Amino acid sequence: MWKYLAKRLLQIPPVLFIVTIMIFVLVYIAGDPVATMLPADASPEEIAQFRHALGFDQPFYVQFGNYILDLFRGDFGESYQYGTSALGLVLERLPATLELATASMIIAILIAIPLGIISAVKPNTVIDFFATSFSVLGKAIPNFWLGIMLILVFSVTLKVLPVSGTGSYSHIVLPAITLGTAMSAEITRLVRSSMLEILHQDYIRTARSKGLKYSAVVIKHAFKNSLVPVITITFLQAAALVGGSLITEMIFAWPGLGQLIIQAVYAKDLPIIQAAVFVTASMIIFINILTDIMYRVLDPRIKFN
How is 68-128 classified by DSSP, letter by letter? Predict the structure, then answer.
C-alpha cells in the first residue's frame, strides 16, 4: 500500500504541471483583460503602456516562461481587481467553500444512507418508491432552481431562515441543502443497489441462519461490505462540491471560492482564475488519494498494484 501511495504522490507534480499549462493556454486564448480594466475613453497610448506594464505585449513563450518561474515560487501574481496576492485571496476564500461543502456532505449522508438502507431492506414498498423517486428528482432538479425555491419558501414566505450571507449557522442551511440534495440522491441510489446485491449473498443467509438479529446482519455484514462503491461516489461528489459550488455561492451570496471565481471571470482577473483552478485541482487530487486509502481501510482484501 505504501509503495502504491508513494507512486501516486510522485504523479502529483506532473499532473499539476499539465493543469498549469492548460490554465495558461486557455487564459492566453481568452485575450488580455486590458479593455475591461481601463475606461472606455482610454487612449491607444495608455492602453499600450498598461499592456506593457502587465507584460501582455511579450511573446507567448516569454509570458509562459515567466508564469512557470513565478509558479515555482508560489507566486500567481497580484489580482487586477484587488491589487493583492491572487493566491492569498483564493486561500482566504477557501475555508468558506470547504465549510459549505462539508455541511452539504453531512446533510447528504444523513439523508442518503438511512433512506438507501431502508429502501433495500423493504423493496417494492412505499418507502422504496419514495427513495427511487427522490433519487431521480434529486438529480434532475437544477441547483439554481432549487436554491431559488428554498429562498422563496423559507426566507420570503415563512421568514425562518436568512436569504444570504454568513454570520450564523442558520445562514448555511439553505445553501447546504441546495448542494446536498443532488449528492444525497446519487448516494441513495448507490446504497440501495449495493445493499440489494449484498443482501442476496450466501454469507448473509448464513448469518441469518445462525440466529443473528436482522438489524445486526444488515448493519454489520451487508452495509459494511457495500461501503466501497458508496465511499467512491461520496468522495467524488465531495470533489465536485469543492469545484462546483459556483452557482450556489452566487445565489446565496456565500463568500467562498466559487463566488470569487465568477467575479474574476467577469472581470478577466487572470491571476485569480489561475490560482483558483490550481488550488481546486490540487484538492481534487488529494481527495482521490484519500479515496484510495479509504478503500484499504474498509476492505483489507483490496490490493494496490
Answer: HHHHHTT---B-TTTSSBHHHHHHHHHHHHHHHHHHHHHHHHHHHHHHHHHHHHSTTSHHH
3-state secondary structure 214-226: HHHHHHHHHHHHC
Whole-prediction pTM value?
Answer: 0.81
**Contact criterion met (CB below 8 Å) for 104 and 237:** no
Task: Encode pLDDT of 16-60 as tens digits.
Answer: 888 888 888 877 777 667 766 777 777 778 778 877 877 777 888
| Nearest by Cα to 239 from 177, 283, 279 | 283
Which residue(s) pair with 85 in the sheet? 78
Question: How many other C-beta atoms lie within 10 A of the C-beta of residue 226?
Answer: 23
Contact 302, 232 (CB under 8 A): no
List the one residue out of 65, 56, 53 whose CA is nearest residue 31. 56
Query: 3-state DSSP helix/strand/coil percent for the chain, to nearest 5?
Result: 75, 0, 20
User: How is residue 159 annotated by DSSP?
Assistant: -
Contacts of 47 (CB under 8 A, 6+ apart): 34, 35, 38
Distances (CA, A) of 103 to 86, 170, 175, 251, 295: 26, 12, 9, 17, 23
By CB atoms closer than 10 A (0-12, 13-18, 19+), residue 87 is buried
Task: Give the C-alpha separation, 61 to 114, whole Å.
Answer: 55
Task: Kindly compute the dihedral angle of the four CA atoms of residues 279, 280, 283, 285, in this order, to the nearest 10 degrees.
Answer: -110
Least confident of 117-121, 122-126, 209-213: 209-213
